[in-house]
């Protein structure tokens, strides 16, 4: 399927009760944005410090996904997604499940394994910073960004999720297949990051590194 993009703000698209699992930079930003919009949001995170920071910011922090949620947003590390999907599937049996991971084929397989193919949609907001953690989250971080929304099973709630992303984040949505997403993001995000890390590793071993640090301009430092 050819990706289709377009900003907009449809009415009546919002989910009413949302749980965000994983309150780092991205998950925390999502939760804070939704709370600012007046949405009923709870947050789940295994890290005690993250929970404390989230609670101190005014977010409702709970131990596990409540059964009454109609949307569960998974923003965990990729290796924790299968377990998070299993928990969401069992604890919120009526909820739509989305994940915000930077790759989409592996989460799609995990969703099928968790029995979620009829209520799962893969999502990837193309925004972030060089920082991590809830303390760097920002309710405006993902607003106006491009969001990839992955089409999968024919019965998935794709239209509902696209409408929510448009409404809640004033986004440009690109509807795309999981494999096409992963190839495209590798070109514009993953490969540049890998090259940048390799360049920095090489610079650190250069005999001229001390002078180079003084001469480095903003783009190299970033």
What does the secondary structure layout of this molecule look like, with pairings?
Layout: E1 4-7, E2 17-21, H1 25-36, E3 40-44, H2 48-56, E4 60-61, E5 71-74, H3 81-91, E6 96-99, H4 105-113, E7 120-125, E8 146-150, H5 158-169, E9 172-176, H6 178-204, H7 209-215, H8 218-221
Parallel strand pairs: 2-3, 2-5, 3-4, 5-6, 6-7, 8-9
Antiparallel strand pairs: 1-9, 7-8
Helix pairs in contact: 3-4
Describe the protein's architecture and organization.
This protein has 222 residues and is α/β, with parallel strands linked by helices. Helices cover 41% and strands 18% of the residues. It has a nine-stranded mixed β-sheet, with helices on both faces. Helix 5 (158-169) links the parallel strand 8 (146-150) and strand 9. Helix 3 (81-91) packs across helix 4 (105-113). The radius of gyration is 19 Å and the shape is globular. It starts with a strand and ends with a helix.
Quick gist of this model?
The chain is α/β, with parallel strands linked by helices.
Keywords:
222 residues, nine-stranded mixed β-sheet, 41% helix
Structural class: alpha/beta
The general outline is globular
Percentage of helical residues? 40-55%
**Can you list the strand order of the major beta sheet?**
1-9-8-7-6-5-2-3-4
